[in-house]
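Session log. Operator J.P. requested a structure for one protein chain; no other inputs attached. Running the standard single-chain path with token output.
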Amino acid sequence: SSGGPPRGGGNEFSPDLVPSLGDGQTGFGGMGGGDAGGMMGVMAGGAGVAGDGSEVLDRLFGLLSARRAPGPEAYGAPALWPQGAGPGQPGWNPAASYGPAPGFGPPPGYVPGPGFVPGPGYVPGPGYPPGGDFGAGAAGEGFIPSAPVVPWTQADIFSILSLMQGSYAAGPGGAVGASSVGRLHEAIGATASQLGLAGGIQAMPGPAQDMLELVSMLFEALLDGRRLDEKARTQLARLIIPYVRVAMLDRRMFMQSSHPARRVLNLLVEAFEIAGPDVPHFRTLRELAMTVVDRVVEEFDDTLKLFESLEGLLSTEIESCRRRAELAERRAADAQNGKERRQVARESVSTILSEAIVGMSLPSVLLDFLAGPWQHHHTVVLLREGALGEGVQLSRQLLDELLECNTCGALHDAARLRPTLVEVLASSGQPGSAADELLVEFSLALAVRQAPDHSRTPDEVVAEAISAAKVEHVLVDSPQVIAEHTVLAPDAEPVEDSFLVSAVVNTEVPAEMIARYVEFPIGTWLDFIAEDGRVTSARISWTSPISGRRIISNRRGQRMLVASPEELAEMEIEGRLRPRHSESAFDQALHTIADRLQASATLSPPG
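Structure written below.
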């Protein structure tokens, strides 16, 4: 028995039928070379993956091709067929197709056609007669010839993908786990069998296998560890077959960030990261994302215009969500800025008070007042008016006069002190009568301390102290006066950060790593890795002009963390944080693929 002629008038994979498969003109371009060294340079620089050139993509394919086990292309890829001849055609020579590498031969069970002449390096496969004698009647005892496995044509491949996409359109069940390379190969082989195509995935030409594996790795990288709910992950996994078709039609999806299919995938990942099932106010976006996935799976028929219309729908809704996130980021920044300003003001007032009373012996009534109501009031007016404000000057003058009274041992002019005392105590919500009580207690404490002789009785000392504290003109206390000077809005409730910095910063953090976080501008994206291994993408949304600390916010604008560059650098060392190469999920996935391929190439023995 012999191989017979190819089906459909030609059995080769024909990339020239789809001009954009290769370099934008013909063929697969340079996808067959194993340029691992060049890829290392690209990954080290972290640039070029999202560009409009084919160099990086060719290097990716080079690493993919090099990773495949050494051996013949699937029944001789068209690029290796001598003079365009294929199996069963005149001049077909498996040894020439497979190359002269020793030990390479045709697939098991292959029966050569008439006129076959073994080429150099040819080794017969299992089941062939000993000695490789292929003359008439030379088959050994028990030898059962079988038909050769015919390579799949381009039409075959798209028929398989169409049938698989149809099964995915029927429901998400078929897509579960199919984003892994092994499962995808199994699914393609099973679908090919339904169409009567033999040979499994190895019947697919090598360049097409590489494209298939690249798309599969893309979805693995998109879904691996990302903090998405299970329904969103399952929905995204359903897109793998339509995106294999897109890649087979137009490899520019991997080269151009503006490619509609690429942009739609980026928007879908962003939509599912924003609109989780536990966020009802983003339900509209979540439902739209689910609908877009359904439409791609059900309607994509190798026409890219579908992605252009879907991109418009997603972009409009996501832009609205981004504006909402920006408002949330501004609120978080304002709250953090206010918190830091209050902290700075408190520290400043504390320093002023400490320097003013150092070395003094103060009555407890005065010390309690200064450390409590006065310190609070001075902080409030300092925040409200600035260092040169009138209220700040009056408050500072009150401090000086009270300390002077303490030094002299007598209350000089209670009437002049009382108005400012009323304002200070009002900041803490106390009425004007509290100022009278304070003046009496302070005067009494000074009088007791300044009575060395026994010419006066204790009652006389008290009476004199009360008289000194008496104010002839008493201000009328009213709720309005108190309210005007009371800080009714306390500090905002603390926000519980999703990620916490280390309690103690490691002093061994490299200076260049810290400098990198110092230089990161607002909008830089970072990946935070939780204890469960899940990844949350967040960005630097604000930098404090006071402390230099950064607010890190998620895609909803929610604050995830407030940390200094030193703390962020230490988190990276601890493996809890890593900078992202790009905001878009697609670009980041390509970098992840490149890292994995390069690591695999480094670990694999040469040759």
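Operator note: The first helix runs from residue 36 to 45.
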